[in-house]
Amino acid sequence: MAKTNPLQFVQQVRAEVSKVVWPTRREVVLTTIMVFIMATLTGIFFALVDVIIRSGLQGVLNLFG
């Protein structure tokens, strides 16, 4: 494996960083809002599943208990 000197390494890093396409402020805000919405919907879904499973188990236990 070829070794590069520190100067070449820094130049290569700067060249790669200049290729990065940074998101706009609007894109960041929209994706952040979407993450919060999806996290909320996921939380509601799993809470409902938990209630359904819990009530089903309680029904079965009351039936035999």
Task: Give a description of the structure.
The longest helix is centred in the C-terminal third of the chain and has 40 residues, at 25-64. The radius of gyration is 26 Å and the shape is elongated. It has a domain at 23-64. Helix content is 82%, strand content 0%. It has 65 residues and is mostly helical. It has two helices and no strands.
Shape: elongated
Structural class of the helices, strands and pairings? mainly alpha
Number of helices: 2
Strand content: under 5%
Gyration radius over CA: 26 Å
Oligomer: single chain
Sequence stretches where pLDDT stays below 50 over 5 or more residues: none
Give the integer mean of the pLDDT values. Answer: 94
User: Strand count, sense and closure of the main sheet?
Assistant: none
Helix content: over 70%
What is the distance, rounded to the nearest whole angstrom, between the alpha carbons of the first and last residues?
Answer: 70 Å
What order do the helices and strands follow? HH
Write down how many β-strands occur, each being a DSSP E stretch of 2 or more residues: 0
